[in-house]
Design a protein that fits this description.
Distance between the termini: 70 Å
Structural class: mainly alpha
Number of helices: 3
CATH class of one domain: Mainly Alpha
CATH topology of one domain: Methane Monooxygenase Hydroxylase, Chain G, domain 1
């Protein structure tokens, strides 16, 4: 006996089919439409906006990593703000105080990074 999928799952299968078709179709179309003009400048290495002029083992400035870490930290903060905002009515004043403390810690970290010059991009 062959089990048929419930009718409620049909939109999911259609969405899956459409997304796979879109991904494969985009790759196939771009393969045929893309220009194939290669020159030396196009094939050179490009990394983070700086020309590759020295050894590959050249250290990156620490500020690059600090900015990247600050971005990740503030991104995580935003990821925690959305669920908090959704359940704000249920958690009440206790949840508000917790979030104020949470944001205050990030403000202190941001002020420290600013004072140390971690946000300067020279």
């Amino acid at each position: 006996m062959i089990a048929t999928p419930p009718i409620n799952y049909i939109p999911i299968f259609i969405f899956l089919l459409a997304s796979v078709a879109f991904g494969v179709g985009t790759l196939v179309i771009s393969y045929f439409v893309q220009p194939r003009i290669y020159n030396r400048e196009k094939l050179t290495t490009y990394e983070c906006g700086s020309e590759p002029i020295s050894d590959a083992r050249m250290p990156f400035p620490v500020r690059y990593y600090i900015i990247a870490m600050l971005f990740v930290i503030f991104d995580i903060e935003v990821a925690f703000l959305y669920p908090w905002a959704v359940v704000f009515n249920k958690i009440g004043l206790f949840g508000l105080i917790e979030m104020v403390i949470f944001i205050a810690l990030f403000v202190v970290g941001y002020a420290y990074a600013w004072k140390k010059g971690g946000l300067e991009w020279d």
